[in-house]
Design brief:
Length: about 325
């Protein structure tokens, strides 16, 4: 069980100016407020929304400022502050080493949540090895909404209007605007969802195959203290072999299997198994970061698999299910 919670967490007041994260960088020469940027603030679904395109335009004159990342963090804190005022109640903003958190939990619990998230961020970064300058500028934001109805009102903004019925949701990461994670605080699996979506956030700028993206995100749920991944028994293995033998694995490799009602659960489960096998293999685990850096959804990661591990994609499935036609296409890989 990992219980290393050593970082200082700062509770922020609404629009309160913070001490710069780095002593050599200062925002004293910049006065930029979301409410003063024309067209930046609006309301949709009765919730304040930010037009981050307008914000980016306002930041252009400061693009080369030494504290540009801190400026983005300050603007993100302003945005969370506007939300906090709108939500009323006891919503507060907390700042960690890598993340901003908006929630209405008691102070002690909020700090523990943020420390857990910051710790998971560090461990993920060591596994993923992000490129310098990749991802969004500023600290990433996490929003925990304690009313389920409010959570759905918030996330509906990020879905197109349609008659399509969407499944139940406990959390999501969006890269739209200022990349952030929003969670349903009533979910019993909120902590697992938090680190799961954090993994998605850290690879959002990479063209990963769906199976690899979801395999990674499910694997890192182990970072939640006390959580243990579901056990795969012999019956589950037989079910997998029967299903993938009958229907093939092409829809798994393309990502379509993660959306179908009949294939979704087995696709997520297979993705987690394949990724766990990679990171627990004595030889392959040293090349997982390389694989995550080079895998591309166009070929389901086939080329990256050969270069990183010296094997074909079907080999990964064969080691779990035994011999079969497990390739990403109908014909065997060359």
């Amino acid at each position: 069980m990992h219980t290393s919670f050593s970082r200082e967490v700062i509770m922020l007041g609404f629009l309160r100016k913070r001490t710069p994260s780095t002593p050599e960088a200062s925002l004293n020469d910049i006065e930029l407020h979301l409410r003063e940027i024309p067209g930046a603030l609006s309301t949709a679904d009765a919730i304040p929304r930010i037009d981050w395109t307008k914000v980016r335009e306002a930041i252009v004159p400061h693009a080369n400022h030494a504290a540009i990342n801190q400026l983005w963090t300050e603007l993100a804190a302003q945005w969370l502050g506007i939300l906090a005022v709108h939500l009323a109640g006891s919503y507060e903003i907390y700042e960690g080493s890598h993340l901003l958190l908006l929630c209405a939990r008691p102070v002690g619990e909020s700090k523990r949540l943020l420390r857990l998230a910051d710790d998971a961020y560090d461990r993920l970064a060591r596994m993923i090895n992000p490129n310098p300058g990749s991802g969004c500028p500023g600290k990433r934001a996490i929003i925990i909404l304690d009313k389920t109805s409010l959570y759905y009102d918030y996330i509906s903004y990020f879905y197109a209007d349609s008659d399509r019925a969407y499944g139940a949701s406990v959390g999501m990461h969006t890269s739209r605007g200022y990349g952030h994670i929003v969670l349903n605080g009533n979910s019993k699996s909120m902590l697992q969802t938090l680190v799961h979506e954090l993994a998605h956030a850290l690879v959002a700028d990479r063209p990963l195959p769906v199976w690899l993206n979801e395999g990674l995100a499910q694997f890192v749920e182990d970072m939640v203290p006390g959580y243990r991944a579901p056990f795969i028994n012999a019956r589950d293995v037989r079910l997998h072999r029967r299903y993938w033998s009958w229907f093939g694995t092409a829809h798994f490799w393309t990502g379509a299997g993660f959306k179908g009602a009949a294939s979704q659960r087995l696709s997520y489960q297979l993705a987690e198994i394949l990724f766990r096998n990679l990171v627990t293999d004595r030889d392959r685990r040293r090349s997982v970061s390389t694989f995550l850096a080079t895998a591309h959804r166009e070929d389901a990661g086939a080329k990256a698999c050969r270069e990183a591990f010296g094997c074909q994609l079907p080999t990964l499935v064969e080691e779990f299910l035994g011999p079969g036609s497990w390739g990403p296409i109908d014909n065997p890989e060359p």
